[in-house]
């Protein structure tokens, strides 16, 4: 590192879905000669199957180095100790980097950890909040923070008017939080993202302007917002970062060969790819409905079922799959290289929980979706997928909160076979084109990243 290089310390919240986008943003900064140090927690690093080799990694502590959130027992215990120990160990790290001739200029932090702003201020550093969810969802939490709306809504049929949204949304479209003490704590954390946001220098959003124009324009009046997404590996978008094909940080080992070999033997646009991400846990009853819906759709399917979730599959489901069709009808794997799968020509649609990373990946690769949101921001993302961007359908739950097999079957057929599905597929292609353009040279996200870099460099030279 040359001494005149600006240096960003990246502080992610320690779950896979939050680390991946920050890691990709870091690669973009690095390609523009910004020095990067990424600082996950010791407990997160312990579980890593692979680590990025191109940037320096340092660890801070959340106070539970052996088992992280699980070791803490409750979310409140975890958040309280993380704030105390995290602030201390982050301060020590900043001091250590300064002493070794690599002083930090800016902390890019996940707003789930708002205490990072105070640490940055103590050291006279600039700070950037990096929101890993959609701007629409951030806007909802902002209005909960301001006391304008309440979560969860009191009546199921209530329409909610949110400033920055062109039309009202229904109760089933807002982020879900069941009323129990744990969930209340999580909601508190989500709302607290805005507690000191007026003190930061930049607010970075993992989205792109064309995707959420209206709500971004509205939020920009309050905060210095810059969209810098979609943060997925460059080889699937503008291809300007050489060899950037993977996130490079993973807690699961993908079954790459099995997935791709199987997909290579399937007809074009024929396969339903099913994945609920790294965190969602389905009830056994829902797993059974999903299994039957997939089988009854008569479509070939690739289904990611994490090993901890596999016992919930119907009895003998995997064995029967192998017997009936020589494994050709369906393949169940514990983890897969999602981007390579979504890019594959045999994929016809993506049955997804609508986590924001998965949604952005599907948009970037032009894959139509069957949305089956589970919790948190997913219902809002599903609403956008179906009604705003019109790139998918939503599989609705019944009064018991379960999506039935008939609904799953119907949604799959609609997207892959019917005329309405054709319109959805055309829209998906259009958004794919836009996603590539925004990160390419001169695109809206590319310009925002350039502006962020030039201000960082300017701040650095002013301090000399």
From TrEMBL:
Pfam families: UDPGT
Keywords associated with the record: Glycosyltransferase, Transferase
InterPro entries (UniProt xref): UDP_glucos_trans, UDP_glycos_trans_CS
EC id: 2.4.1.-
Sample GO molecular function, one term: quercetin 7-O-glucosyltransferase activity
Top-level taxon of origin: Eukaryota
Main enzyme class: transferase
Record-stated family: Belongs to the UDP-glycosyltransferase family.
Name by which UniProt lists this protein: Glycosyltransferase
């Amino acid at each position: 590192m040359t001494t005149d290089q600006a240096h960003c310390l990246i502080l992610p919240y320690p779950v896979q879905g939050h680390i991946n986008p920050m890691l990709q943003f870091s690669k973009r900064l690095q390609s523009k000669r910004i020095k990067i140090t990424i600082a996950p927690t010791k407990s997160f690093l312990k579980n890593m199957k692979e680590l990025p080799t191109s940037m320096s990694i340092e660890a801070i502590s959340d106070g539970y180095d052996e088992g992280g959130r699980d070791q803490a027992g409750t979310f409140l215990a975890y958040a309280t100790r993380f704030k105390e120990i995290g602030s201390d160990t982050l301060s020590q790290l900043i001091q250590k980097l300064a002493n070794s001739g690599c002083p930090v200029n800016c902390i890019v932090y996940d707003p789930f950890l708002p205490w990072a702003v105070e640490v940055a201020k103590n050291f006279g550093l600039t700070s950037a909040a990096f929101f890993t969810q959609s701007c629409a969802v951030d806007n909802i939490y902002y209005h909960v923070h301001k006391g304008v709306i309440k979560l969860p809504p009191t009546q199921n049929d209530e329409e909610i008017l949110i400033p920055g949204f062109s039309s009202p949304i229904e109760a089933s479209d807002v982020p879900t939080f069941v009323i129990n003490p744990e969930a209340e704590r999580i909601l508190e954390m989500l709302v607290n993202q805005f507690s000191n946001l007026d003190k930061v220098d930049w607010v970075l959003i993992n989205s792109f302007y064309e995707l959420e124009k209206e709500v971004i324009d509205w939020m920009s009046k309050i905060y210095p917002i810059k969209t810098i997404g979609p943060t997925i590996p460059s080889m699937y978008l503008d291809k300007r970062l050489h060899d950037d094909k993977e996130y490079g940080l993973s807690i699961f080992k993908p079954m790459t060969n099995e997935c791709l070999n199987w997909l290579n033997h399937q007809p074009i646009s024929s396969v339903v790819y099913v994945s609920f991400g790294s965190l969602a846990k389905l009830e056994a009853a829902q797993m059974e409905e999903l299994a039957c819906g997939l089988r009854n759709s008569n479509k070939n399917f690739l289904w990611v079922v994490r090993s901890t979730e596999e016992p919930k599959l119907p009895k003998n489901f995997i064995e029967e799959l192998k017997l009936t069709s020589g494994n050709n009808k369906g393949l169940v794997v514990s983890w897969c290289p999602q981007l390579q799968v979504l890019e594959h020509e045999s994929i016809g649609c993506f049955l997804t929980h609508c986590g924001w990373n998965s949604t952005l990946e599907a948009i970037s690769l032009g894959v139509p979706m069957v949305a089956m949101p589970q919790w948190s921001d997913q219902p809002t993302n599903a609403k956008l997928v179906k009604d705003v961007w019109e790139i998918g359908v939503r599989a609705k739950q019944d009064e018991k909160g379960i999506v039935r097999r008939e609904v799953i079957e119907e949604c799959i057929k609609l997207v892959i076979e019917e005329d309405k599905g054709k319109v959805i597929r055309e829209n998906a292609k259009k958004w794919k084109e836009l996603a590539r353009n925004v990160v390419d040279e001169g695109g809206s996200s590319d310009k925002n990243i350039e502006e962020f870099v030039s201000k960082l460099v300017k701040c650095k030279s002013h301090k000399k």
